[in-house]
Amino acid sequence: MSSLWPPPLAARSAPVFHESGLSGDDAVRATNDDAAISRLAAVNQGYLSDPYAKHFVRRPQRRPPVINRGSYTRSKALDTLVQQFLKSGDGSPKTKQIVSLGAGSDTRWFLLKAQDLHPARYYEIDFPEITGRKAQIIKKNNEMTELLGEHLLTSGGTELHSDNYHLIPGDLRNFSTEILPRIASLGFDKSLPTLFLSECVLIYMSPRDSANLVQSAAESIESGVFVTYEQILPDDPFGVTMLQNLKMRGIELLGIRAHPSLQSQRDRYLIAGWDEAGAVDMNMFWERILDSDERTRVSALEIFDEVEEWRLLSGHYCVSWGIKTRKGADNGLKNVGLWELSS
């Protein structure tokens, strides 16, 4: 049974010290490497298409089929929501902006840019240890720097800026006091429809810090979407084992009991001032949202004997979203979401 499935991208958590001497922040930062390795394994096996993933992995490794399928499903679910957002309203990505929270080694901006589907502005925030390494990898890769165009490396190599891509070091626990003012200085426009993207990030924060972030995000824009991918169901037998395995690695899911179910995932947005909210688990996405031809393609990539484990794992991960619409205006954001499954 996998201790992390799929391994989460680098994320935030308050310092928690264990007998190993490894702090919670350090342990969670280390999961960025796990995530990059797992994504590349899925790419190499044909699940995903990402020519940039290889640049963030020093030593590629194979992953079991259940991990590859999990990495694929996570990416596909989030990509579905991102594409819905970019196509909403006037249909132009160039009239929107995205804020990626705890972006880690994510390559989404480069994939969008290569297709000319990038938004007007794209902000990535992570700890300086992560952004510094990412900036250096980008700088050494001609294909990625060509997509950036004219760019500037600052803050001792931990920040990277181009016309519409900004890689910024910061601590998301200080979202309202530090992150929002920083992106405002880099052209963040509250009048533009905005997507906040959180992949296994909020769950590493204390419930108070994550609630403040979700509320501050709602207050910072006139309209937009907040998308979260993270674990749920901590108290059934599988969930208990999942948390124990994570704890052995020095990782604690500080927020999982504050939002342990699909309903509580929806409620977090409504309480924080978002107008509508939805949530689905990965079983629901795989079985009822994913195109049947695509499901057949993915199923044929590897011999898959881990059906029971797959269903257990998929039921313990979810994607949720909150939507804020501009008063008196229909900008199409209400159509963003997997509403056919969420109730």
TrEMBL record:
Entry EC no(s):
2.1.1.233
| Residues forming coiled coils | none
Extract the GO molecular function terms from the UniProt entry. Answer: protein C-terminal leucine carboxyl O-methyltransferase activity
- Tell me which Gene3D superfamilies the record gives: Vaccinia Virus protein VP39 (3.40.50.150)
Is Methyltransferase among this UniProt entry's keywords?
A: yes
Q: Which domain of life is it from?
A: Eukaryota
One of the protein's GO biological processes: methylation
Q: What are the UniProt keywords, alphabetically?
A: Methyltransferase, S-adenosyl-L-methionine, Transferase
Residues recorded as binding S-adenosyl-L-methionine, renumbered to this chain, are R74, G102, D171, L172, E199
Q: Enumerate the catalysed reactions.
A: [phosphatase 2A protein]-C-terminal L-leucine + S-adenosyl-L-methionine = [phosphatase 2A protein]-C-terminal L-leucine methyl ester + S-adenosyl-L-homocysteine
Query: What exactly does this protein do?
Result: Methylates the carboxyl group of the C-terminal leucine residue of protein phosphatase 2A catalytic subunits to form alpha-leucine ester residues.
Question: Of which family is this protein a member?
Answer: Belongs to the methyltransferase superfamily. LCMT family.
Protein name, as recorded:
Leucine carboxyl methyltransferase 1
